Amino acid sequence: MSGPDDLHGAALAWLMEPDPDRKGEGVQALEAALAAGAVAPRPDAPPPAPVPAPGRPARPRLVPPRAVPRRGPGTPAGRVALIHALAHIEFNAINLALDAVYRFRGLPPAFYADWLRVAREEVEHFALLRGRLQALGSDYGALDAHDGLWQAAVATADDLLARMAVVHRGLEARGLDVTPGMIRRLREAGDAETAAVLERILRDEVGHVAAGTRWFRHACAARGVEPEAAFTAFARTRLRGMVKGRLHAEARRAAGFTEHELAALERARRGGPDALS
Question: Are 105 and 48 contacting, i.e. CB atoms less than 8 angstroms apart?
């Protein structure tokens, strides 16, 4: 009787799938297969390879961040641009979660269950946002987008600690800060449907950032480093340019940020010295 299939190889296959619908179906099937024991991490799996680009559709065209269409919810075109940008973030987030399952080896089973759950919820978020685009006469790929989120994944591909700090407790956590303002502006613009989608996304994203916190601390324990000091170092160096505007401290606390870490992020935002020095 053969054993379970290789989880890492299956995650890579869906990571490289370009069609969003097929990718979403694959994520759901893979999460169910892991829960059923049909796939599992295999010690004889080939080591992870670099993934310069994940599978994605031919459109949207990727351009520098400053060339992305302006996105303010006050006009119909601006609202479409905003939703398109958010859909692109969610599509990238599917790939980021799959890459974590593929790339990082020798971790507890809960790690892989966590990131496949995250991937499945990101699939749901993408579908909700794509539905709003279609309801407004557009679709994913109709506008240009940028590749900053995946480039952060490439930059942290060899280091679980950095991936959790920079991508999930850095870039993804920024969504906790900015989403309440987007919800308010969408409601003011009369788009209660999209605002409701973002409220659902915000609730889920607290859990996603909490997963980043959980595995950041696991990686710290494995290396024998103190988590608050380690995160403060990231805040001072690699997160400084990501911290803009007011922090949503309540959501960040719910996602596992400590008061020391929030203080470090505030110092990074203001360009001040290390919060723990």
Answer: yes
Q: What are phi and psi of 60, to 5 degrees?
A: -75, 155
- Computed on alpha carbons and rounded to an integer, the radius of gyration of the chain in Å comes to 19
Task: Say whether the peptide bond before residue 109 is cis (omega within 30 degrees of 0).
Answer: no
* Whether the predicted model's global pTM rises above the 0.85 cut: yes
Give the three-class secondary structure for 98: helix
Q: CA-CA distance, 194 to 228, in Å (whole number)?
A: 36
Contact 82, 72 (CB under 8 A): yes
Residues 6+ apart with CB under 8 A from 100: 111, 115, 163
Which of 165, 135, 131, 133 is closest to 236 using CA atoms?
Answer: 165
**Exposure string for 195-205, b = 16+ CB within 10 A, e = fewer:** bebbeebbeeb
For residue 168, with 0-12 CB atoms within 10 Å meaning exposed, 13-18 middle and 19 or more buried, which class applies?
buried
Distance between CA atoms of 87 and 82, rounded to whole angstroms?
Answer: 9
pLDDT along the chain (277 residues), means of 10: 82 98 98 97 91 97 88 89 97 98 97 98 98 98 94 96 96 95 96 98 98 98 97 89 87 98 90 43
